[in-house]
């Protein structure tokens, strides 16, 4: 359906203001106050899928792993803008998409669960000024609570030791780098949890998060991420 005159004028006015002030869509770079209509629709139409079989290092034993979309444009630029360029306001729309993915990964949400985010590296938190993955978990929790789901955000997992930057490491090296790296504070006995992350590549981070939570006697229902990196052929 062709947009009406008021909608067209609104779009022109927004574009002019964005050109004047330099505001662009974090997904495609077009003039926009926040997400442009096309990128917003792309997120709104994300189709979560089971990606356990796509992870180079395999999924945690007995746990479903779902992602909202593939790590490609415009989703990739949105995530980079959110994490590295200070687009903190993206937490709400991204959190809504993550909430839908969580519902797929753990269908038994009605009984109440805790969302536990994969811990960001301490250096990344210092540089960004906040824990972006935990921010996504909080935004997803707000969305789920808004539709009557009993869900909370669990205490942080923390790093028990230093780790290397995962970028550039293969599946085996990623697993070795993170083996035994996370710890869950306290006793999680009887708590039902969903592990959440912004991006899954080989699955090393979520496998280690699941291991740490199970060591604290938590019951892990599933894992959910915003995006999954396409698996390269041969690896």
Automatic annotation (TrEMBL):
<dbReference type="InterPro" id="IPR000836">
    <property type="entry name" value="PRTase_dom"/>
</dbReference>
<dbReference type="InterPro" id="IPR051910">
    <property type="entry name" value="ComF/GntX_DNA_util-trans"/>
</dbReference>
<protein>
    <recommendedName>
        <fullName>Phosphoribosyltransferase domain-containing protein</fullName>
    </recommendedName>
</protein>
<dbReference type="Pfam" id="PF00156">
    <property type="entry name" value="Pribosyltran"/>
</dbReference>
<feature type="domain" description="Phosphoribosyltransferase">
    <location>
        <begin position="176"/>
        <end position="231"/>
    </location>
</feature>
<comment type="similarity">
    <text>Belongs to the ComF/GntX family.</text>
</comment>
<dbReference type="InterPro" id="IPR029057">
    <property type="entry name" value="PRTase-like"/>
</dbReference>
């Amino acid at each position: 359906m062709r947009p009406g005159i008021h909608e067209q004028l609104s779009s022109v006015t927004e574009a002019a203001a964005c050109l004047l002030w330099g505001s662009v869509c974090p997904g495609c770079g077009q003039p926009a106050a926040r997400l442009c209509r096309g990128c917003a629709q792309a997120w709104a139409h994300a189709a979560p899928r089971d990606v356990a079989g796509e992870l180079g290092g395999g999924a945690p034993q007995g746990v479903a792993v779902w992602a909202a979309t593939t790590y490609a444009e415009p989703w990739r630029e949105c995530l980079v803008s959110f994490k590295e360029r200070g687009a903190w306001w993206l937490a709400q729309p991204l959190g809504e998409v993550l909430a839908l993915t969580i519902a797929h990964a753990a269908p038994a949400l009605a009984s109440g669960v805790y969302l536990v985010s994969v811990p960001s590296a301490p250096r990344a938190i210092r540089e960004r000024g906040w824990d972006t993955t935990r921010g996504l978990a909080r935004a997803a929790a707000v969305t789920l609570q808004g539709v009557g789901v009993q869900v909370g955000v669990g205490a942080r997992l923390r790093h028990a030791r230093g780790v290397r930057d995962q970028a550039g490491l293969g599946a085996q090296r990623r697993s070795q780098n993170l083996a035994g790296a996370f710890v869950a504070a306290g006793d999680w006995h009887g708590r039902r949890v969903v592990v959440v992350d912004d991006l899954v590549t080989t699955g090393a981070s979520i496998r280690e998060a699941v291991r740490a939570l199970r060591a604290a006697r938590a019951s892990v229902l599933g894992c959910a991420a915003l995006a999954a990196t396409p698996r390269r052929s041969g690896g």
